[in-house]
Amino acid sequence: MTVDSQEVSTIVIIGATGDLTRRLLFPAIFRLYALKQWPNTRIIGYAVEDFTQAQFLQHLEQNLQQFEHDYDGAVWESLKGQIEYVSGDLTAASLSRLQSKISANALFYLALPPQLFGDAAEGLGEAGLSSTGNGWRRLVVEKPFGWDFDSAKALRERIHKFWQENQVYRIDHFLGKETTQNLLVFRFANRFLEPVWNSDHVRQVQITVAETLGVEGRWQYYDRAGALRDMIQNHLMQLFTLTALDPPSTWDADVLREHKVEVLRAVRTIPDDQVDAFALRGQYQAGLVGTQQVKGYHDETGIPTSSTTDTFAALKLYVDNWRWHGTPFYLRSGKRLAARFSEIALELRDVPPGLFGKPLSNWLIFRMWPDQCIDVVAWAKEPGLALETRQIILATPYQKIDEPDYSAYEQLLLEALHGDRAYFLRFDEVEESWRILTPVLDAWRSGAPELYDAGSQGPKGQERLMIAGHHWRTIAVPQ
Ligand code: BG6
């Protein structure tokens, strides 16, 4: 999406010297700029570090050289003229120094540790930056939005002291991924899917986001969050709602988001005394990821040896509505697993066994990583004299090698600047997903995760979530 190039605006990145900015936001801005997609938008970096303008630019340049494959010195020379650095903390007094530097339209991006979101939103509001007589003001808030149901509500209250809901853009970068957006296109642009997209035909849905990475120096955040908060509450819940929602009538942000909330509202509450049948947590110990020997979670820098943080979380959800009643949705995500591998896989119910003497089912797989592909696992005749079946895979990569590959942050930055909120979360989506997880979070306050070897399929106990006849799919790079 391209923003009207005549519209002058400013993006203020609060937390401009942090990890998110250097690894993801600035490379995204750089690529958009290099591709001439960056709108007429000035960039202000704001952070506590007492950098001069020259030091900040040098810091950005060094990071771009490290994190951006397509770094180009000439592009940087041109881009850097649009960047300014302002040093300050999150108090209103300090933030008000931004006042004279921004035009009517401004987007404030909170690239901060989650515990600072409330301070920053209030500070900006008290400094008078959340409103203006003409033009727009927007606030982008990163994930996780809160640590549980109550803290998410409390954060919302703080933000809403100064910001209206339609100014708040709660980001979940999985919604900016090409594969996520293709899920909606493929579901609703193809007539053959809708008739089978329900519990009459779908036996189970498995959503897996497996990583080979460990905590990567983010221990301060991660050891408090764990896999359930870091991945399931946001990214996997988004994949789940987009898989399960009813067809919206338009792409209008509120229509789409209303349909997503409807799914979440229909999710059966996990009974407090049956959490173990619906949720499972694991923690990695030392092992081999590919050919690399890696440490266990307890031996990672900064992690206390007593930590019971989940580095793997799995969940079984039921959607009690007409479309999905009786079909389990299994969600799982973990670090240090056998492969980097993400997919949404739907298994259709068996065909009657009469003709072939055995039950046959199909899988429909939306693969997000390592490639962007839709696979239909089907049955065909085994060539030969007998009427035997064999499994075939109709594999459809939908991105061509030479097509542009925009990152999720490129996509979402442009959408926020453009004012399109369809791929940002409404508060009730966040609230409902915390509601669903509350019994699990409560139960996991005590006890400990099951250990699994780094490089494995995850905790062996994950099988206990499956109902009879269902098994987790293998986490492996497809051949
Ligand atoms: C982030 C999580 O939101 O998503 C990380 O905090 C995780 O722990 C990352 O590694 C995964 O995103 P992607 O785009 O690399 O698949």
Residue ranges: pLDDT <50 for 5 or more in a row?
A: 1-5
* Continuous helix count: 12
What is the strand tally?
17
**CATH architecture descriptor of the largest domain:** 2-Layer Sandwich
CATH class of the largest domain: Alpha Beta
CATH level 3 topology of the largest domain = Dihydrodipicolinate Reductase, domain 2
- How is the quaternary structure best described? single chain
* Ligands bound, unique: 6-O-phosphono-beta-D-glucopyranose
Please give a structural write-up.
With 479 residues, the protein is α/β, with parallel strands linked by helices. The chain has two domains: 10-171, 3-Layer(aba) Sandwich (Rossmann fold); 175-402 and 449-465, Dihydrodipicolinate Reductase, domain 2, CATH 3.30.360. Helix content is 31%, strand content 22%. α6 links the parallel β5 and β6 (168-170). α1 (19-34) packs across α2 and α6 (149-160) packs antiparallel against α12 (427-443). The longest helix is centred in the middle third of the chain and has 26 residues, at 219-244. It starts with 8 loop residues before the first strand and ends in a 26-residue tail after the last strand. Mean pLDDT is 95; it is low at 1-5. The protein binds 6-O-phosphono-beta-D-glucopyranose.
